[in-house]
Design a protein that fits this description.
The complex is a heterodimer of chains A (112) and B (112). Chain A is mostly beta strands. Chain A is built from no helices and 11 strands. Classes of the chains: A mainly beta (112), B mainly beta (112).
Chain lengths: 112, 112
């Protein structure tokens, strides 16, 4: 099994709809990172969460880290075609801040 | 542009060829990383360098040979690759053991 599980694996939503992507671990997440990737390209940093219960927002994207620091969610409000891509969660599981472990990603399509 | 530049963007090579991937960052970061991204698999950490010293080799086959001449440059030398090595190779850098990892756009490698 993966150290970081992302769900769903893929998602198709109509423009204007809200959606949530989840990232779960059986281990403590010392730092949780959300990235967005356009197909075949590099990763664009979205947000980083470190404290249990922390919540951050940027434009229409909100990310939360639960109190136990084992689960994070990424919520997009009123989705737009520009939100389409692959969303990846990465985490410092070792607690050393020396490397990131990634989930398999969630592919998001936004239809008109 | 994220500040981490990878060249080439695309590479097609035969199994007997020797080629190199290059990564350059001008962010003043001291740590650099190579990740491999294959279809439907999480990003796999390959190598970690901190202040030019290799601190992690994640059981990578010897046909992949990294080189880090200084904190701003990272190379991945390739020789006698296999078709299953075809993937997107991503370089990343971070400062002080990473509060934010910055990724390049990747090199799409195809081994024929």
């Amino acid at each position: 099994s993966q150290e970081l599980e992302q769900s769903p694996q893929s998602l198709i939503v109509q423009e204007g709809k809200n959606l949530t992507i989840n990232c779960t671990s059986s281990k403590t997440l010392y730092g949780l990172y959300w990235y967005k990737q356009k197909y075949g390209e590099g990763l664009i940093f979205l947000m980083m969460l470190q404290k249990g219960g922390e919540e951050k927002s940027h434009e229409k994207i909100t990310a939360k880290l639960d109190e136990k620091k084992q689960q994070s969610s990424l919520h997009i409000t009123a989705s737009q075609p520009s939100h389409a891509g692959i969303y990846l969660c990465g985490a410092d599981i070792a607690g050393t801040a020396s490397k990131l472990t990634f989930g398999t990603g969630t592919r998001l399509q936004v239809t008109l | 542009e994220t500040g981490v530049t990878q060249t080439p963007r695309h590479l097609v090579m035969g199994m007997t060829n020797k080629k190199s991937l290059k990564c350059e960052q001008h962010l003043g970061h001291n740590a650099m990383y190579w990740y491999k991204q294959s279809a439907k698999k999480p990003l796999e950490l390959m190598f970690v360098y901190n202040f030019k010293e290799q601190t992690e080799n994640n059981s990578v086959p010897s046909r992949f040979s990294p080189e880090c001449p200084n904190s701003s440059h990272l190379f991945l030398h390739l020789h006698t690759l296999q078709p299953e090595d075809s993937a997107l190779y991503l370089c990343a850098s971070s400062q002080d053991w990473g509060r934010v990892w910055t990724f390049g756009s990747g090199t799409r490698l195809t081994v024929v």
